[in-house]
Write a structure and sequence with these properties.
Layout (H helix, E strand, L loop, with lengths): L13 H8 L4 E4 L6 E2 L15 E4 L3 E10 L11 E8 L4 E7 L11 E8 L5 E7 L7
Parallel strand pairs: 6-8
Antiparallel strand pairs: 1-2, 1-3, 4-5, 4-7, 5-6, 7-8
Length: 137
Amino acid sequence: MERIQPQRIDGLAAPYFAGCREGELRLQHCPSCGHWQFYPRPFCTACGAEAPAWEAASGQGTVASFSVVRRGLSPAYEAPYTVALVDLAEGPRMMSVIIGCEPEAVTVGAPVTVCFEQWSEDLSLPVFRLDETGGVK
């Protein structure tokens, strides 16, 4: 089953999606106060500075919470799959899925590492795998 495709990727989030296509998780980082943020905004949510810079994140994080979906929404989302809130090493929290393991292997606090799934020729999105090496330092 084909997944929904965006009409175009531009504007404020374009650097984020460009990074995903290149296999790099990019987050906004404020040069004024050092705050990292996700999702993209035109200002720093900590100090209000305009135009935070885009920088590569480590791709490391820990599972803050998760839910196992046992009945997929459509044939494009084969169940079971694990939806998780991931606390990134840089500070922001993002929602994604945990891949490459049985749902029972996921626990709160488990270390994870980002990887990317290609959804179309132009769109890749971050997903996470359990990190057996120990994760966030």
